[in-house]
């Protein structure tokens, strides 16, 4: 049941992100992100930065949910499979957040350089 809930939560998050015209991609090579950002105008940079910000916030919320589930596991079961799976899922989400933040920062810095509006982009 909990795996189903986790899978459903992640699927909904992915659907939300894929609905955006410009979406955050944690797997896009940094060099490609840098080249793309250098060619963009301020409004497009802000839109991409906002897309990454939203993806980061969604993943952080997922981490918090999983951490709460992990906290609810009795001490006697902390070495069990459920606990191990939750820890692995949290680790994967944290890696994803780190990758998203790296790419967000590129768009953010480029927007800052071009004198664009940085409001609403604080993480």
Number of helices: 4
Q: What is the CA–CA distance across the termini?
A: 32 Å
Helical percentage = over 70%
Report mean pLDDT, rounded to a whole number: 84
Let me know the largest β-sheet. Answer: none
Radius of gyration equals 17 Å
Helix and strand string, N-terminal first?
Answer: HHHH
Could you say which structural class the secondary elements and strand pairing correspond to? mainly alpha
Overall 3D form: elongated
* Count of β-strands: 0
**Which strand-content bin applies to the residues?**
under 5%
Note poorly predicted spans. 4-20
Explain what this protein looks like in three dimensions.
With 123 residues, the protein is mainly α. It has a domain at 58-116. It has 4 helices and no strands. The two termini are 32 Å apart.
SSE blueprint and pairings:
Blueprint: H1 2-18, H2 30-39, H3 42-72, H4 81-113
Main attributes of the structure:
mainly alpha; 123 residues
Entry summary:
With 123 residues, the protein is mainly α. It has four helices and no strands.
């Amino acid at each position: 049941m909990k795996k189903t809930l986790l899978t459903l939560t992640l699927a909904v998050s992915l659907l939300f992100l894929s609905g955006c015209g410009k979406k955050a991609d944690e797997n896009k090579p940094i060099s490609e992100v840098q080249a793309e950002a250098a060619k963009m105008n301020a409004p497009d940079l802000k839109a991409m930065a906002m897309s990454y910000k939203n993806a980061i916030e969604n993943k952080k919320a997922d981490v918090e949910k999983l951490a709460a589930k992990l906290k609810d596991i009795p001490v006697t079961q902390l070495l069990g499979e459920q606990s191990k799976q939750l820890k692995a899922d949290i680790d994967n989400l944290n890696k994803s957040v780190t990758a998203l933040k790296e790419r967000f920062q590129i768009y953010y810095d480029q927007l800052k350089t071009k004198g664009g509006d940085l409001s609403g982009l604080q993480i």
